[in-house]
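Pair request: fold both.
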Amino acid sequence: MAEPAAALGEFNFAGDDHVVPFQVEGLDVRGRAVQLGPMLDAILERHRYPAPVARLLAEVVVLTVLLGTSLKFDGKFTVQTKGDGPVDLLVCDFSTPENVRAYARFDQGLLDRAIAAGQVEPEQLLGKGMLAFTIDQGKFSQPYQGIVALDGATLEEIAGTYFRQSEQIPTRVRLAAAELFDRDDAGKPRHRWRAGGLVAQFLPEAPERMRQPDLHGGDGDTAGGSHKEDDAWMEARSLVETIDADELTDPQVGTERLLYRLFHERGVRVYEPREVFDRCSCSREKIKGVLKGFSAEEIDDSQEDGAISVTCEFCSTTYRFEVEEVAQAAE
């Protein structure tokens, strides 16, 4: 049962589509939490994805937003999966400071067979492959990419593995997505998507306290066995693992209320929320720039009835160019 709002004092709640940074000083933990509503719903409904695909993409959007809002520089953060399952591609871009776009690709026949067989768990839909995290600071720097295998685990678990292997920061990630069926103000039936998530990281002042138990077979394996985890991190992780998926998506359980329920005994501090928006980075000028690189033969092959139409896979906006316009730009 949710804590009463009065228990949190008198302050404004962040609400949907706002990432809330937080700190638990008693446990040396920092993190971010979010509930996504209208922004996510707009992305998913634009493409009318089947529910299993929409649910997967929603989790990727949450993960991207949680990690992307931590960037301290101008750039782009991308989370992308590639697998051999029915949903072979999921991609979400976060462009600082606040813009999000996302897209999913799937094989309808394979998806139908998976649904009929009841094989709709995330790991079954994604199959074997990889999850990539890419940070791009612009044309004056080389992009950084970290890759972790899709190996039959959930996106939560895979993200945790990435931080453990690549960042070496003890991290716990929680993700959830849900469909809501209710009625609008006029009493008409309404369908909406919501999602939520939380990332908590152990960041003590003494770096030696961050040491985690070694991964099996890793370079850190020792004859003496695995290292014991720090008690503070064990407590924080255990608290985060008590979160129900419904709490992450329930519009009646605000982000601050959830953080209070988890950490009030240790004292949790929340910071200014960061709002995120459904905004694509495509434009007519950008696409025209791509078409400039087309040869005369490619332009001819791409045209239909004297024009070339290009539809953005992310936002579904269609841009139409007259062949003469593209040909002149390509010269």
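--- second member of the pair ---
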Amino acid sequence: MSQLPKQPAEVSVPTSADVARLAGVSRATVSYVLNNNATVRISDPTRRRVREAALQLGYVPHAAARSLRAGHSRMVLLPSGHIPGGPLHQYFFEELQSGLRRLDYTVVQYGSVGLTADEAATAWAELRPVAVVVPPGITLTPHGTGILTRSGAKAVITLGPDPVPGAHGLVMDQRRVGESAVEHLVAHGRRHIGVVMPQEPCRESFSETRLAGARRAAESAGARVCPLPLGYEEESAQRLAARWGELGLDAVFAYNDEYAMLLMRALQDAGVAVPADTAVIGADDSLIGRLLRPRLSTVRMELAMPQPLAETIDRMVQHPGGPPVHHDLLRTSAVHRESS
């Protein structure tokens, strides 16, 4: 008769009582130290002894139990989806997450692809986060905001270009990007301006908003804007460049530096001189754009906040119930180089 393999003995999970015994302190002291409770005076040697005992035993506080004791979690939920990447957004999310960790929050990313707006809000609410930060490209409705606040979220924050009723707004208005690009081109004598519209679905929310800003700037200057669908591939850029003469354009805002480089190479290969025949400007101020010949003009984007983002969110959590607040984060400026 074959024998089943011997099962390993059940692993004993260390508890706060084990840490207290090893450190020679009470369980309350262990809780105060490991939960970073600053309201109780505990000497530095005692704090070190508790942390060393916890490390030696491999003790990890139980997040759910801590949430029950506190009445809420320390979880900040960051939904993820098809969010257009870029240096500014990468910096934004890195700063946000590291800042929240320093304030003793746990940042959890949640995949929301395939869910409707209200289905996503319900799924987020099931985790009982203390705050939800909704990035651009992910839809939050007023109904979804209500679901989250009723489930215990003390702060619901959107990062899109337009505020959502009932939610705080950290607004990164992409219209400013298109506006700055077209204002720059108009100032250099261009009046017939193409605006590249990436055909990647994940970029649609950004590209449509940047187009709206470009149109606003063009209208006030008496210029013309022409949307230009473009796939992120050489063949698509070559097809667009081949019919450039019939479009009658003297400038192009190419959505970002990557698309600008893609299109500029195709235009040059098709015999279109940059900037003599067509001025080109991108966005993001990437290093590689400065290495091109001609050097690429661009729109530089910066975040403008009166205090660190994590501290702003912490204040919203600490003082819930007030009216929604909105901060306009995005500052843009055109950088003139040789391509325009």
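Observation on the second member. The longest helix spans residues 204-221.
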